[in-house]
Amino acid sequence: EIHDVVLHADAIHRGGGQIIPTCRRVIYASQLTAQPRLMEPVYLVEIQAPENALGGIYSVLNQKRGMVFEELQRPGTPIYNIKAYLP
């Protein structure tokens, strides 16, 4: 944390020579103290398909590590709405 900065009083001496080394040390220290993580995006997928295609949809979702959290049949039709999370 930088709480206070004192630069040279003359404008001619206030340049990269004072700022760049300090910035380099701050960035290097922040990289050393960081806790890096690998994160993957997860998409919300909404699929509309007839009943005879559900087996293929579920097999593809399982191959791609998808997680189905909702399956509803549209009233009066053979169409199913499937909502899943897909990485």
Q: Largest beta sheet: what is the strand line-up? A: 1-3-2
Largest sheet: 3 strands, antiparallel
Series of H and E elements: HEHEE
Q: What would you call the structural class?
A: alpha+beta
Mean pLDDT: 87
Summarize the structure.
The chain is an alpha+beta fold and 87 residues long. The protein has helices spanning 16-33, 54-63; strands at 43-50, 67-73, 79-86.
Give an account of the 3D structure.
The chain is an alpha+beta fold and 87 residues long. Helix content is 32%, strand content 26%. A hairpin with a 5-residue loop joins strand 2 and strand 3. It contains 2 helices and 3 strands. The model has no long low-confidence stretch (mean pLDDT 87). The longest helix is centred in the first third of the chain and has 18 residues. The relative contact order is 0.17. The chain is rod-shaped, with a radius of gyration of 28 Å. Strands 1-3-2 form a 3-stranded antiparallel sheet, with helices on one face.
